[in-house]
Amino acid sequence: MREKRQWRFIDSGSLSPAMNMAIDEALLTSHSLGETPPTIRFYTWDPASLSIGYFQKAEQEIDFEKVRKFGLGFVRRSTGGRAVLHDQELTYSVIVSEQYPGIPTQVNEAYRVISNGLLKGFQQLGLEAEMVSLASEAEKAKYVSAGSAACFDSPSWYELVVEGKKVAGSAQTRQKGTILQHGSIILDWDVEMLFDTLKFSSERVKERLKASFLEKAVAINHLSDKKISLSEAKQAFFKGFEEGLGIELQRGELTSQEQTLAKQLAEQKYGSSDWNWKR
């Protein structure tokens, strides 16, 4: 029996939005230089934060008065996609070379392979999750509502669904020959708060899109009477990534170089208005 490949696992706990995005980029850089193995990281956010996709127009799409009112953090991601409210969730990131054995060259197929770890994690929690291919426009239409800036309203090529509803939102970027995929595993959510922080052409449009959103997406703890804790989610998805990717996770920490680079990126990039308000 062939030995499983070993990846590094980091649980970095609860950090600021700027530091969370800075660490993901630092991990990508160190792996691209061959200094570290493929890595999976789990993290949460302090304070609860709104992140937007790289291509979003911050001032046009986000109500910053409400962001301040709710005491939320704010950051622009290096990945695409739409706005995400990071609150009662487990966030994950996967950093792996484009040349890693078994990683497809096509973005959508690489997404499918990496997300298999998420699929197995949901199954570890006893949920009947499945990965649905959105190859056709008709299939995509089931999981998207035009006009909403909320990430869970934006379908990927493959969606993880339970009882027909989307249960995870992920985004991917490729830089320096390395893939960074990160995303949200929502335990519970405040949909009112999320939609209050987004701008809409009218209150009627907002309510219509919110209703559509709730028809197409769901948080884990809305699926059963048994409430899943953050620690239970971490255990399930740790095992899920091992099984789904056929790897063995070795618990580790950031290297000193990664720590230094992350601090620099948090201060000069992800914590700066130039980056966060650039569009």
TrEMBL record:
It catalyses: octanoyl-[ACP] + L-lysyl-[protein] = N(6)-octanoyl-L-lysyl-[protein] + holo-[ACP] + H(+). PROSITE patterns: BPL_LPL_CATALYTIC. It comes from the Bacteria. Residues 34-249 form the BPL/LPL catalytic domain. Pathway: Protein modification; protein lipoylation via endogenous pathway; protein N(6)-(lipoyl)lysine from octanoyl-[acyl-carrier-protein]. The keyword Transferase applies. Its EC number is 2.3.1.181. The active site is at 151 (acyl-thioester intermediate). Keywords: Acyltransferase, Transferase. One of its GO terms (molecular function) is lipoyl(octanoyl) transferase activity. GO terms for biological process: lipoate biosynthetic process; protein lipoylation. The record marks 166 as: Lowers pKa of active site Cys. SUPFAM superfamilies: Class II aaRS and biotin synthetases (SSF55681). Catalyzes the transfer of endogenously produced octanoic acid from octanoyl-acyl-carrier-protein onto the lipoyl domain of GcvH, an intermediate carrier during protein lipoylation. In the reaction, the free carboxyl group of octanoic acid is attached via an amide linkage to the epsilon-amino group of a specific lysine residue of lipoyl domains of lipoate-dependent enzymes. The reaction proceeds via an octanoyl-thioester enzyme intermediate. Monomer. PANTHER family: OCTANOYL-[GCVH]:PROTEIN N-OCTANOYLTRANSFERASE, OCTANOYLTRANSFERASE LIPM-RELATED. Belongs to the octanoyltransferase LipM family. This is Octanoyltransferase LipM. It comes from Ammoniphilus oxalaticus. The lineage of its organism: Bacteria, Bacillati, Bacillota, Bacilli, Bacillales.
